[in-house]
Amino acid sequence: MVVCASHSPGMERDTERRLGLDFRGGLAEAAERVARFDPDVVVVFGGDHRRAFRHVVPTFAVALSASILAEGGHQAGELTVPSTTARDLAEHLLVEGVDIAVCRDISLDHAFAQPLRDLLGGLDTIPAIPVAVNCATAPLPTGRRVLDFGAAVGRFLERLDQRILLIGTGGLSHSPPSLEVDTYDISDEERARIIAEGMAEARTKIRPEWDNEVLDAMASWDVDALVRLVDTAHARAGAGANEVRTWVAAGAAGGGRPVTPLSYQPVPEWITGMAVATSA
């Protein structure tokens, strides 16, 4: 099963749940479908907001062990990574011609934590393999390379006698001020200052036309359109739109079946075009 969903720290700051009600409704429906699917393991394709990877930035990486940073109102936590399966995945990718990086004891942020909490109810409810896709620090993988990578992951997963949930997390259109600057090593305090100063302008950078093109292409699994949308994401829809690579990787790993939207809602207060889509 494939689930692709936007994430946003703003959603968690909205503790009274006043905003993004259409998106929240779609996310709740996706969580219900996940519960019915009852996965044995989850593979999360996520980006990095220049926290885990700063000085060395792999194009693709498989985590053999990982934790979640304390962020917002959430405490730090550990992920239950099936390390043998994760290592087997990495070895399979090497055989397939993907120069995959592996990482241990890596600390990940809301890009991975938010979908696990929202779709599964917690960080450690089901074993999870984090798969990092570089969406933040140029040069980025092309749309074609992301498709090929996701398909290679899928060929490994087909050999497992397990129910596997594939999550693509991030996007859609948004342009976080901290990603618009080419600064790879900043403190959380400096990051917060940059975001605060650029927030008003960032609220104006949601691009529903591009978002709907992505959703249409995912729903029909139009490979040519997906490649084009990935390769023009930053120019058309902001630095954060580069995270659509995680959607494409997850969809390709799921065999290229249609991934159909459950909801879409631009939420200026979260500076993001928020969407959720599933394959079942």
Automatic annotation (TrEMBL):
A Pfam family recorded for this sequence: LigB
Gene3D superfamilies linked to this entry: LigB-like
InterPro entries linked to this entry: Xdiol_dOase_suB
Keywords: Dioxygenase, Oxidoreductase
One MF annotation (Gene Ontology) recorded for this entry: oxidoreductase activity, acting on single donors with incorporation of molecular oxygen, incorporation of two atoms of oxygen
Residue ranges of every copy of the Extradiol ring-cleavage dioxygenase class III enzyme subunit B domain listed in the record: 3-273
Protein name, as recorded: 3-(2,3-dihydroxyphenyl)propionate dioxygenase
Species in which this protein is naturally found: Mycolicibacterium flavescens (Mycobacterium flavescens)
Record lineage: Bacteria, Bacillati, Actinomycetota, Actinomycetes, Mycobacteriales
